[in-house]
Structure formats: structure tokens, C-alpha cells
Write a structure and sequence with these properties.
Shape: globular
Helix content: 55-70%
Strand content: under 5%
Radius of gyration: 17 Å
Number of helices: 10
Distance between the termini: 30 Å
CATH topology: Glycerol uptake facilitator protein
CATH class: Mainly Alpha
CATH superfamily: Glycerol uptake facilitator protein
Length: 238
């Protein structure tokens, strides 16, 4: 498996399990319906850990354009590889979203709320204020990239195989602490590619894909990832 394919597979697993837990909680007549934010945050954390464990040895398991950008800015990753990795991440995120749609095929018609259907695929802010939402995404992704760089700098977790789990814990903490305002995209591919899938797929009464908001979970994580990398290099010396 080459790095491009690894990023496709890893990001597909990430979105399949991450969007899948949102579907389980929000869609009608799911056995996990209304099980709450803790379940969603935990599901996303484990989704990240599984994705990283699956392909980390092949591509490093960035699974997120903001992480790829941050690693390149920090001098930990070649700029020439950035487009290939990002392409793999967007393709994988789209495929993962399609698999969630298939897995919950019987539940789309049972769910009347179009916002709930969109929320399975993409983030929807609790209070729609674009500047504030953008700041939230910047802060969340700043913590993610700074944390990923700090975890990867420690040899012991990498040697013991605990690094993917620690990254999952990091995402868990971000979800629980900072996810409330926007649903914590912290990943442009995780939000934009499934939003495209939502727009394309034949989901009954799905409503708008909310393209007016779509720039926030792309630009915010990109800025946050860049700032997190710059802060890490400035504070820890790379």
C-alpha cells in the first residue's frame, strides 16, 4: 500500500466510524438514538485511534489536511507530498460518508429533521455566528496539531504503540471541551467531503447542504493547524 492509498483508507475509516456514531445518535429508530454527546465524542475519538493504528506505519496517518499542513510548516513533512496526502484524505472522507449512508439506509426516511441528516455528514453550529464559529475551529485545531506534534516528539509512546491511542484521547478531550459550539470539525476533509456526499446522495427530504457555512470548517482548521505548528516550533524548538 502506498501513502496515498493509506490516507484514503485511514480517512475512510475515520469518517465511517465518526459520522457513523453521529448517525447512530441522531437518526430515528436507531438503537443508539438520543444517547448523547458523550457517545459522539467517544466514537470520534476511537475513530481517530483506529484510523491511525490502521495506516500509521505506511503514511504516518495524517488523515486530516490541517495535520498535513501543520507537519509541513513544522518541518516534519515534505511540502512536495502535501497535495497527494490531502487528495487521499478528501477521497477517503467522501467514501466513508457514502458507507455511513449505506449502513443507515433504513433510517433516512424515518428521520424528518433535515438538520439532523446534515449533522450526520457535516458540522452544524449550535449558535450560527461565523466569526465566533471560526475562532472555535481555529482554537480546536490549534490544540490538535500542537498536541499531535508534542505526542509524536516523545519516543516512548511511539515505541510502545500507544501514540494512536493518545491522539484519540486528544480528540476526545477536544470534543468534550471545545466541541459544543460548532461540533468540532477540526479537519477540512472530514467536513467538506461528507458535505459533498450529502449534496449528491439520494437522501429523502434532506434539505440544504448549508454551503453558506461550509467555509468555516475548512478555513478555521487550516488556520488553526498552521498556528499550532508555528506555536510548537516557537515553544519547543521543532
Amino acid at each position: 500500500m502506498n501513502p496515498f492509498t493509506a490516507e484514503v483508507v485511514g480517512t475512510m475509516l475515520l469518517v465511517l466510524l465518526g459520522d457513523g456514531v453521529v448517525a447512530a445518535v441522531l437518526l430515528k429508530k436507531s438503537k443508539a438514538e438520543n444517547s448523547g454527546w458523550m457517545v459522539i465524542a467517544t466514537g470520534w475519538a476511537m475513530a481517530v485511534a483506529i484510523g491511525v493504528y490502521a495506516v500509521g506505519r505506511i503514511s504516518g496517518a495524517h488523515l486530516n489536511p490541517a495535520v498535513t499542513l501543520g507537519l509541513a510548516i513544522a518541518g516534519k513533512f515534505a511540502w512536495s507530498e502535501v497535495p497527494r496526502y490531502m487528495a487521499g484524505q478528501f477521497v477517503g472522507a467522501f467514501l466513508g460518508a457514502v458507507l455511513v449512508w449505506l449502513a443507515y439506509q433504513a433510517h433516512w426516511r424515518e428521520t424528518e429533521d433535515p438538520v439532523a441528516k446534515l449533522s450526520v455528514f457535516s458540522t452544524v453550529p449550535a449558535i450560527r455566528r461565523a466569526p465566533a464559529n471560526l475562532v472555535t475551529e481555529i482554537i480546536g485545531t490549534f490544540v490538535l496539531v500542537l498536541g499531535v506534534l508534542a505526542i509524536s516528539a516523545n519516543a516512548a509512546p511511539a515505541q510502545s504503540g500507544l501514540s494512536p491511542l493518545l491522539v484519540g484521547f486528544l480528540v476526545w478531550a477536544i470534543g468534550l471541551s471545545l466541541g459544543g459550539p460548532t461540533g468540532y470539525a477540526i479537519n477540512p476533509a472530514r467536513d467538506l467531503a461528507p458535505r459533498i456526499a450529502h449534496a449528491i446522495l439520494p437522501i429523502p427530504n434532506k434539505g440544504s447542504s448549508d454551503w453558506g457555512y461550509s467555509w468555516v470548517p475548512v478555513i478555521g482548521p487550516a488556520l488553526g493547524g498552521a498556528i499550532g505548528a508555528i506555536a510548537y516550533v516557537g515553544l519547543f524548538g521543532g
